[in-house]
Amino acid sequence: MKGILIVVSGFAGAGKGTIIKKLIKEYPGYALSVSATSRSPRPGEQDGVNYFFKSRDEFEEMIKNNEFLEHAEYVGNYYGTPRPFVEKKLSEGMNVLLEIEVQGALQVKEKFPDALLIFIMPPGALELKNRLTGRGTETEEVIKKRLQRAVEESEGIENYDFIAVNDDVDKCTAMLHNIIQSAAYTPKRQAEFIEKVRQDLKELS
Ligand code: 5GP
User: What's the pLDDT tens digit per position in 150-171?
Assistant: First the structure.
C-alpha cells in the first residue's frame, strides 16, 4: 500500500518542528522531507539535515527544471519540496511528512487530493508571541513580520483536514499520530482494499 502524503503547517513558533521530530522518533513508518530554501542557515542548522541551503539563483534554476513538488516565497525567501525523495518514500509505503507553509500546502492539496493536511495550533495568540520572542534567534522586525504573517495564514486554516493544539508536546505528538492513523482508514485511502473485498464477495456469492 502506498503511504500517505502528510502536510504539517503551523505558525512560526507553534512547535511543529519539535512535534514532527518526536513523531518520527517514537513511531515507525514516517519519513520527513528535507526542503530547499534560499534563506541563510540559523546557528546550528546543517545543510542537507535541516534544509538544502541554496542561493536565490540556484533555487530559481531548480524551479525552472521542475525539481519541486511545490514551492513558495515566505518572508522574502524561497522554500520548496524536492520531488524525488517524496515519490520514492511514498512508493515504499512510508508516510511522508512535509513541514510547509500555507501556500505550499494548498498546492499539494490541488496536486494530490489524497494528501492529509494538518495545522498545528498554539493554545493562544499570546503564547505564540512569547514563544517567538523566547527563541532569541530572530530580530524584533522579523518577529513582527512573522506575527503579521500568522494573521494572514490563519485565514487558510479552514482548508486543512485537522488541527492539533500544541499545549503539551507529548499530547500533541500522540494526537498527530492518531489523526494520521485514523485518516489512513477513510474509504478513499483504502480504495484498493475495498475493491478487492467487493470482488471477492461477488465471487463467493
Ligand atoms: P523557517 O525559516 O522558520 O525554517 O520556515 C519558515 C516557513 O517555511 C515555515 O512555515 C515552514 O514550515 C515553511 N517551509 C519549510 N520548508 C518548506 C517547503 O519546502 N515549502 C513550503 N511551501 N514551505 C516550507
Answer: 999 999 999 999 999 999 999 9
